[in-house]
Each structure stands twice: as structure tokens, then as C-alpha cells.
Amino acid sequence: MMSSSFNRCTKNARRAGSSTILSGCYALGSALFACALAGSFSLAVHAQQSRTAKDGVYADGQAKRGQAIYKDRCASCHGETLGGALAPPLAGDEFIGDWGNQPLSDLVDKIKNTMPGDDPGKLTRPQVADIVAYILQAGKFPVGTAELSADEAVLKQIVLPGSQAPSSRPQGTVAGAQTPSFPPAGNLAQVMRGILFPSANVIFDAQVVDPGAPKKPASSSASDSLSVRFSDVYTGWALVDYAAVALAESAPLMLTPGRRCENGKPVPVERADWVKFTQELADAGKAAYKASQSRNQDAVIEVSNQVAESCLNCHRAYRDGRGGNAARCVPRE
């Protein structure tokens, strides 16, 4: 849970209708508190996870209902046999690779909040539970006597087992194949300003602008620049999704060998603290994506503190040290 002062800060910003987010709002949550909270939550969840999908957690009649809903709302994208088509498969090794070792609540929430892709949020939780029952049946998980509950707390206690077989996904290059190298095209400041900074601010902006609110009609004219005309191609929750993925995927660019900082100094990719800060940013991006997938503004507000902390931890050590911005690659001693 966020600190009360952080909540007050963001609520006041909402009431003010301001789109400028003050950095003070972001840093109020304690990193140690967040880590302790995450750890206690993890322990509590694992203590409750006493069942798996192998324990017969759904009923045959429920799976039949789910099959009918699936054919009507899901099959056009995920395939008639759940093998994937326009959208990923919901059965087989790839599906287990994506969702194995996670509680069924995660899968139910994903379907409930974001599916069907062209009309999300219209399925009820009981309908989604029926669909998941059908997915389990198609995955050869045993039938039970009781129906799969749609209750969040119950679903958190049931884990979808992971695959015991080696993953079919490519883990590296084929022997003898040449892997192209991609030397850095820009310095670290350019990467941050072009990718990390705008992506983080999309997430911060969700504190005061509800991504799920109806979109206001945009005015356009022949004189609009391309950046203006295409700035709203992706809007709402999709924009937050993509910004979070951009953070997670681009954070490792901070570790590209040979990249230099704005002041010409080499990026200290060999330092343990720099690697740690990079990992924190990637983790924050993943957490932001999970929060965005919940389609809950408060969840994104909460995780935005983690995003801000991951940035500030690095800034305090490298950007705000000796000489301020001019020494952004000199660690603060």
C-alpha cells in the first residue's frame, strides 16, 4: 500500500486536473518499504498455494459452457483448437511457457480485463472462469467434481503447473550462425530522452488522467505535423501497456558495450551498482505492465512509485553527483 502522503499528493493532482507530475509525488514511497511489502505478499501467496490445476479444479459441465463462450468470443483469434492464429495459443508448450507456475487468478484477470481484444471488459468473471475451465480441459488437466470458482482469493491459491520438458522456444543462435552486432547509435542521454523518459511519463500521467476514460474528439487540420496527427494512434490503456513494455525492453540498452554518456565518458557497464539500477528499471517496467493489464488506475498509480524510485536511485548515484548533469557518468562517492 502506498504511503498516505503519496496518496494525498496524487489525489490532489487529480482534483487539480494537472498533467504535470511533480517528482516529489513519485519518490515519497520508501524503496525498503516496497521491497518488504513485496516480500511479505509473496510469502503469503505461496503459503496459500496448496493446489494446482492437476488437482481437478473444474467441472465437466463448466468446461462445456466455457467451450461455447470460447467459440463465440475467442476462437476467431486464438484458433478453433486453441492452437493460436491471430493471437497466441491457449494450449500446448507455448501457453504453459507463458502462464505456467502462475496462479489462475492472473490468467482470469488477463482475460477479464483485456479480452476479447476488439471488445475488452465485456465478459463477466463467471464467464471467464468457464473459459479457463475449458482451457484446462483442452490442456488435459483432470476434471473435478466442483466448478472452478470465479473468486479472486480462491483463484490465487491454484497454480497452473509449468512444463517439465525443455522449452520449444529458441534460446540462442544455431551453431555456426553469425549473429549481427548492433553498436550503439546514440549516447545514453539520447536513449533516455528518446525512449525511457517519454515512456516513464506516460505511466506517470496515468496518475491524473484515467486511461479508461472516454477519449475526447481530437481536432485536426491540414497544417498539423505528423507528430500531432499520429500522437493518438494508440490511446488509453494500450498506450500505458506499450510504455511499460518499452521501459522493460529498453532498460538493457543502458548496458550496451561501447555506449558513451553525453559527456563522452564510457557508460560504466561493468559496475555492479549500474547493473543493479538497470535491473530495477526493467523490473519496474514489467510491474507497470502487469498493473496496466489490470485496467485499474489505482494499480498504475501505486506502481508508478516503483518506476520513479528505479529512476531516482540511479540519478542520485550518477546524475546528481559531482558536477551535476555534467558528470552524469561519474558515480557519486
Structure notes:
The chain is an all-alpha fold and 333 residues long. It has 2 domains: 51-160, Cytochrome c-like domain (Cytochrome Bc1 Complex, Chain D, domain 2), CATH 1.10.760; 185-212 and 233-333, Cytochrome c/b562 (Four Helix Bundle (Hemerythrin (Met), subunit A)). 52% of the residues lie in helices and 2% in strands. The chain is built from 14 helices and 3 strands. It has a 3-stranded mixed sheet.
* N→C terminal distance: 33 Å
Give the strand content: under 5%
The share of residues in helices is 40-55%
Query: At the third CATH level, what is the topology name of the largest domain?
Result: Four Helix Bundle (Hemerythrin (Met), subunit A)
Radius of gyration: 23 Å
Characterize the biggest β-sheet. Answer: 3 strands, mixed
- Average pLDDT works out at 81
Instruction: Give the total of domains.
Output: 2
The number of helical runs is 14
- The beta-strand count equals 3
- Trace the largest sheet across and list its strands: 1-3-2
CATH superfamily of the largest domain: Cytochrome c/b562
Secondary-structure element order, as H and E?
HHHEHHHEHHHEHHHHH
Sequence-ordered SSE layout with sheet pairings:
Elements: H1 4-16, H2 23-27, H3 31-48, E1 51-52, H4 60-73, H5 75-78, H6 93-99, E2 102-103, H7 104-114, H8 125-138, H9 152-155, E3 158-160, H10 188-205, H11 226-229, H12 236-250, H13 272-293, H14 297-319
Parallel strand pairs: 1-3
Antiparallel strand pairs: 2-3
Helix pairs in contact: 4-8, 7-8, 10-12, 12-13, 13-14
